[in-house]
Amino acid sequence: MTEKTESKTAKQDFEPRIVAFLCKWCSSAGSDLAGVTRTQYPANLVPITVMCSGSVSPVYILSAFNKGADGVLVSGCHPGDCHYIKGNYFARRKIYLTQKLIEFIGVDKERFRMSWVSAAEGAKYAEVVTNFTNDIRPLGPQKKLKGDR
Amino acid sequence: MVNLEKLQARVKELLDKGAVDHVIGYRRGSATFMAAPAFITRPEDAGDLVWDPTCVHNLSLYLTAEKKIKAAKKETAAKPIGVICKGCDSRSVVVLLQENYIKRESVHIIGVSCEGGGVLDENKLNKFLKGKTPLGAKYDGDDAYLVATKDGEQKIPAKEIMADRCLECKYPYPVLNDDVFGEKAESKRLDPYHSLEAMEAATTGDKWSFWKKHLDKCLRCYACRSVCPMCYCDECVVDSIAFMVTPSTSPDQKANRIKWIERSNQTSENFGYHLVRAIHLAGRCIDCAECERVCPVNIPVRLLNKKLEKEAFLLFDYEAGVDQKQPSLVSSFRDEDPNDHIL
Q: ipTM of the assembly?
């Protein structure tokens, strides 16, 4: 009985855990700006700073899902703004293919997003995080690719 | 028609002249009527070579194997290796050349056109014959195979027993070759992405149950990886063989070493393996479907690779194995690449 009520409340209070790969030069600075300007956004997101969105291997994304992430966000500089000139263009291709593959095997495509956030877009960062969290909440926990351990 | 005698004579000539070290081709298998890979080192053995729709293997795999053996022995190849390539196989050689894994002068491509006849799917054939043992097969040029059994020869429409990939083949003619046998032929039986249609139209739930049903069977025998000419990495992401275990390695270090994908065949790990493999083959897979053929539990591995092949072609206008000079799919970009998936 207590177990049942517990699981019910757990579902209602489901807080998604999102792993975000933020590029050091733009999105990470953008998230910093969001914090410095005291913009309110959900605390569901765990940021991981990477040197470039182009360095995010699809294996990182699958690994995040495997370790129990409910959503994965990859964020980098706007096209043309990459610190390494073309890293985000490579990311755009790779992420596109990964998204299609994830969709093809039957995982909700809403669980995996990419965004362009520049260092000046603290407000956009907060908006992206808020929308992503709100979209994932009704989907419930991600159990399909989660490892059993 | 491919003139087998001329093919054998050419192989004999190459070996006689010493132009190649050995020739990789097909000969009659001993277990079934299907052809088996043959390594012809002596000119007098050239007569063993066969060519018919049972020559299913992608022999370019042995070029990568050869390179690894040579590297382990610290030898350098003195002479090129002759390899008999169908249209599909020649494309995988092109990808290996494009990636600079092998050098152009280290391989002598003996192209053989399948002339639209493709190769057989052994499973489909056995199902079709309902228990009768096939003894031989040839393509009669008229969209049908002549399959010999103990009751005599039987004409079977190509659609029934041809391998799926051959039904969807775009380039049946060797794109790159030093010698070529057989006529150039068109092969357009089905839309190139026909096998994906049903899956793409399915709902998310159906897709998931389809793949879960199949991938839960996976034994993680890695036969698909072993047979793939593109899976030539010295260390694979699924087995960290380069992790040094010495007497001073602590249990903590052993437990906490980076393992992207566990060895156990749980659902999550099997999905991890197959997805990573599909991603690594994006823009490289030339759809020889060897992975699907060797799978002991009949997982439709080919579909995953085909999906990415389709996306690469439709969105990025990229085809694997047609141009040796083009940059690879994920190391190139165009300004007009899709941007709509990004917020």
A: 0.89
